[in-house]
Amino acid sequence: MFDIQDELKKLPDLPGVYIMHDKSDAIIYIGKALSLRKRVRQYFQPSHNEGIKKKQMVEHIERFEYIITDSELEALVLECNLIKEHTPKYNTMLRDDKTYPYIRVTVGEDFPRVLFARLMKKDKSRYFGPYTSAGAVKDTIDLINKIYKLRTCNRNLPRDIGVDRACLNYHIHQCDAPCQGCISKEEYAEKIQGVMEFLNGNYAPVMRDLEVKMNQASEDMEFEKAIEYRELLSSVKQIAQKQKITNTDGEDKDIIALAADDVDAVVQVFFIRSGKLIGRDHFHVRVGTDETRSDILSTFIKQFYSGTPFIPREILLQEAIEEANLVEEWLGKKRGHKVSIHTPQKGMKNKLVELAARNAQMVLDQDKEKIKREEGRTIGAVKEIEGLLGLKGLHRMEAFDISNINGFETVGSMVVYEKGKPKRSDYRKFKLRTIAGPDDYASMHEVLTRRFLHGMEERNELQDKNLPEEMGSFTRFPDIIMMDGGRGQVNICLQVLEELGLDIPVCGMVKDDNHRTRGLYFNNVEIPIDRHGEGFQLITRIQDEAHRFAIEYHRSLRSKSQVKSVLDDIPGIGPTRRKALMKHFQSLENIRSASVEELVQVDGMNQSSAEAVYLFFHQPLKE
Q1: What is the pLDDT, as a whole number, of residue 130?
Q2: What's the structural domain count of the chain?
Q3: Which of 133, 179, 491, 504 is most buried, judging by how many CB atoms fall within 10 Å of its CB?
Q4: Is 355 exposed, middle or buried (0-12, 13-18, 19+ CB in 10 A)?
Q5: What is the spatial distance between Cα 511 and Cα 377, in angstroms, rounded to a whole number?
Q6: What H or E segment, with its residue span, contains residue 148?
């Protein structure tokens, strides 16, 4: 079960994207944060107020997850991609499907231009981005055009060279006028190469040049020009932040990395579709003997892609795998097109793999914490109870409860806990028909007798057939019996065990006047228990589970179908007589209380059928 308060404590103080789910596990909100710890915690603070809509959203949060990134910029772009993919209910501010801008270099032209673009199309152009600030993109484009003196017109060159006169940009020295043949195609191409190197991250030379010009303008008392250079430099610094959440090649990729220890491993998969990271998933892998990290990845890839309907064009791995060529061939046949498996060593692809590995390690670390906490709640709780009772080896616990409707249709429940965890496959329910009226002690005596007598008979049958005892449904006996109550219920259980010749410890779970557990009754002594300890919590869970299981069975007997089945058990009572009985008496309790003479008065009933109904409810039935 997802405990929000516990999960809030584990949030990292790192940038990333958080994803809120409702009780149906639908994504209802996606947000980004510079610090996941600070941001996500804010939603659950009573003093925090972000408006009525956010308050309504928080009320529907059942669980949350998150993806860490290397920067807030990456988180912002990832947030945009995920919102477009999942369209969460409460992300209303992004319903306009806003896209982040790109810088487009029209390398398919003889004299390319550098343009602003909102969409990345499959054309001959080179795209850089996306970026988070449209203003910064425009400033950078202006800067590039000023530095490299590129054309901004839409003339068809070289066809239109010399057709018209040069524009104003040529006269103010911001364009080399390829439209007039003032610069050759080769010289212009060198400028474009410098532009693409700058956009690929090699912006240090330009920044140094701007700083020199800014300082020189300041020394020359040209402060307005110095301010202009400073602002352009600031824009370059802002746009020059490399981010790797989106690739500009527009391809489909899966990024696979793992984190592992001696026993377990977590494999993280990032799904990139059309160049955008649209989601991720993690998978738990049990590590085999002497398996290397490469072995784990290889095994995972074969199992994962044998069952997934979509196979991407490229798979990026944290480490190289053996038989990579063979796996590529296999995946290519499944996909119908070539599939490449790579292990990047540098660049954006390598950083994506590193990011996936960091997320895998975080999941593995959290799972270890979860397992540790779970062991405290289960095995640790059992050891605490063993210490209180002075016992050892309490591997299997069984608890029993009785429930009835005004003494009628009494039922019993048996729940089983092994190593502190419920083992629902061993739960059993008992429908009592030998006890009349609300006699809990007698009912418990019957339930316990039936449970252990059945187990002993099964053991004997399996031994006669030389079959293992594990094949029986009742053959496994508990290491301790937990009775819901004090001295009375414990003594009933001890009496049954004595009658059957069994030696099993019996412990009572004693409640106070407010129906809250206050201690354990064992060996004629009530033992107090720390209400803040894990042992106390386990005892409470066992009590509640036994009660719940009995009540659920009890409620099922109230349903119309179950009521009909009870009457169907009476010889000579078919659908017609059953319907007549219910119509005449209105309830099973009235039928049970009726005499033979009253039963005969019902339409369709004769003396023998009336006697059969009367005996069914009044004569004790044998097992």
Answers
A1: 58
A2: 5
A3: 179
A4: buried
A5: 21
A6: helix 134-148
SS3 34: coil
Distances (CA, A) of 117 to 98, 99, 246, 373, 545: 13, 10, 15, 51, 61
Instruction: State the pLDDT at residue 94.
Output: 32
Same structural domain, 399 and 360: no
> Which own/partner contact pairs does 265-273 have at CB distance under 8 Å and 24+ positions apart?
265/296, 265/364, 266/360, 266/361, 266/363, 266/364, 266/367, 267/296, 267/297, 267/300, 267/360, 268/356, 268/357, 268/359, 268/360, 268/363, 269/304, 269/356, 270/352, 270/355, 270/356, 272/247, 272/312, 273/312
Tokens, residue 544 = 């509640």
| 419, 501: one domain | yes
Q: What is the CATH number of the domain that holds 392?
A: 3.30.420.340
Q: Tell me the pLDDT band of 621, cut-offs 50, 70 and 90.
A: very low
Q: How far apart are CA 517 and CA 485, in angstroms?
A: 9
**How large is the average pLDDT for residues 387-407?**
85
Residues with Cβ within 8 Å of residue 618, at least 6 apart in sequence: 436
Q: Verify that 265 and 307 share a domain, yes or no.
A: yes
User: Mean pLDDT over residues 218-223, rounded?
Assistant: 90
pLDDT at position 48 is 62
473 occurs within a structural domain? yes
Please provide residue 126's backbone torsions phi and psi, each rounded to the nearest 5 degrees: -105, 135
End-to-end, the C-alpha distance of the chain in Å comes to: 40
3-state secondary structure 164-223: CCCCHHHHCCCCCCHHHCCCCHHHHHHHHHHHHHHHCCCCHHHHHHHHHHHHHHHHCCCH
CATH number of residue 578's parent domain: 1.10.150.20
SS3 240: coil
pLDDT by residue (tens digit) across 407-417?
Answer: 556 788 899 99
Domain boundary among 94, 129, 153: 94
518 and 571 share a domain? no
- Lowest mean pLDDT: which of 183-187, 366-370, 394-398? 366-370
Rounded CA separation 102/140 (Å): 11
Q: What's the whole-number mean pLDDT along residues 172-187?
A: 89
Domain containing 425 equals 388-558
CA dist 115 and 106 (Å) reads: 8
CB 493 within 8 A of CB 448: yes
Q: What is the dihedral of CA 43, 47, 53, 55, to 10 degrees?
A: 60
pLDDT value of position 498 = 94
- Kindly state whether residues 553 and 437 are assigned to the same domain: yes
Task: Please choose, from the candidates 462, 449, 377, the residue with its C-alpha nearest in 3D space to the C-alpha of residue 414.
Answer: 449
Arithmetic mean of pLDDT over the chain: 83
* Residue 241 predicted with pLDDT over 70: no
Extract the tokens encoding 566.
């009870």
Structure-token match 């063979």, residue found: 326
Q: Report pLDDT digits (tens) over 425-451.
A: 899 988 876 776 677 888 899 999 999
